[in-house]
Amino acid sequence: MRLYGWTPHAISLGYHQRKEEIDLELCREKGIDIVSRPTGGRAILHADELTYSVIMPESSQYYEKEISKVYEEISQCLVAGLNMLNFPVEFERAVQTPKDFSKGELSSMCYASTVQHEISYQGKKLVGSAQRRLNGVVLQHGSILIGNDHLDIANYLSGKSSEAKEKIKSFMMKKTICLNDLSNGNTVSYSDLAAAIKSGFEEKLYIKFLETELTPREVKTVEKIKTVSIHE
Amino acid sequence: MSEINKKALTLLGCSGSIGQNCLQIVRQNPDRFSISALSVHSNVEFLIDMVKAFKPEFVAVSGVEPSLEQHAAFAELGVRLFTGPDCLQRIVQESEYDLLVNSIVGSAGFLPTLTALEREKDIALANKETLVIGGELIMESAAQNGCSIYPIDSEHSAIFQCLMGESMESVEKIILTASGGPFRNFTLEEMKQVTVEQALKTSQLGYGRQDHH
Predict the structure, then answer these.
(1) Residue B182: is the preceding peptide bond cis (ω within 30°)?
(2) Which of A57, A64, A173, B91 lies at a 20 to 30 A Cα distance from B27?
(3) ipTM greater than 0.85, yes or no?
């Protein structure tokens, strides 16, 4: 498992997205990097967040053939970590059908469909995750939102009017929540959060992590896959 | 027809010609078929329309990333959307169905077929690559899991239908002839003069030259 943040802040593009979808000029001006993900989904602005990434081979005892099982297993570890910091978040698992709701609760029904299988608080998504399987290895990564800077992604989308950008921002505000929103005015520290997430995995999986720096080989791999920066 | 005989389908490649024909059959026989999950490669707007019509639980878009507005549309419709490289696997693993209709084009069709067989689901197969890539593996898995594979691509389905009710012992050979194309009305004498170039030039499907060894 790797826990990390982003300096400079960066936009990651989903697997099928092209960099033309992003306002590269503005990114250059604001010093925002652009990277691409091996997973699906839309562009994300990685700013005030803790990012996690877990890899495991098929031979791991935690490996499951079903993608959703590994997804849930990892999500439960994240929830355990967040609960340690007294955040009352949960992994919305059950498939909610309209009969689960009493009459007049149409609004909750609408959000229910969007937050199933996500770590959320009162129907708002806190952690966005994605998984990929390649060559016998599972990768799952995701963003745990600390602040609300991720909303600024709207400003960096190319070909959108300022009206459309505002609409996107308010849509995202309705659908997502960050830890600072849940901490009664206190700011959540990156290091406290990272420590709690680590403990969450250790407690749930009965394991102990060995903390290490990047190996020389990993550093070399990073250099190899790093392409030309848009700031050049 | 009772509910017990109603078949739930997961349909991969619903915007292609076989996919659309399949949806037409479901539309005409709502008492016999329902749709659990649908996928398209890139025709997202078509998929949104099909979600409204057939109300599947899951959808996948395997070749493009839908726009934010399209993501919102799927969310509003209460359907779970998967995108990215493993999205077909996700819906084949997670949706509940009796029959997987695999009508996508290309090698991406292989893994979903295998996964569905492992889940003991029958397959209606139009994805040739599934059998080209790993026919042995697929047929073995089908036998092991007690599943049927129904060919639904034109020629294969025609042979399948011809053989229905026949005993395999009575079949000595199956001969597939190529369609006559522009030479259809040629006499035997004229056929002797036909060149490879003439045949390739008239290939309407653009298959081009395929050397079989």
Answers:
(1) no
(2) B91
(3) no
User: Concatenated DSSP letters for chain A?
Assistant: -EEE--SS-EEEE-TT--GGGB-HHHHHHHT-EEEE-SS-S--EEESSEEEEEEEEETTSTT--SSHHHHHHHHHHHHHHHHHHTT---EE--SPPPGGGS-TT-HHHHHHHHHHTTSEEETTEEEEEEEEEEETTEEEEEEEEESSSGGGGGGGGBTT--HHHHHHHHHHHHHHB--GGGGTTTPPPPHHHHHHHHHHHHHHHHT------PPPHHHHHHHHHH----TT-
Of the partner residues B68, B87, B93, the one whose CB lies closest to the CB of residue A68 = B93
Which chain A residues have a beta carbon less than 8 Å from that of B90?
Answer: 67-68
Residues in chain B within 8 Å Cβ distance of A142:
none
- B138-180 pLDDT tens trace: 999 999 999 999 999 877 888 888 888 888 888 888 887 766 6
Tens digit of pLDDT for each residue in B173-193? 888 776 667 777 888 888 888
Question: Catalytic: A110?
Answer: yes
Is B85 in contact with A117 (Cβ distance < 8 A)?
Answer: no
What is the 8-class DSSP label of residue B189? H
Q: What are phi and psi of A214, to 5 degrees?
A: -65, 140
**Do B94 and A171 count as a contact with CB atoms less than 8 A apart?**
no
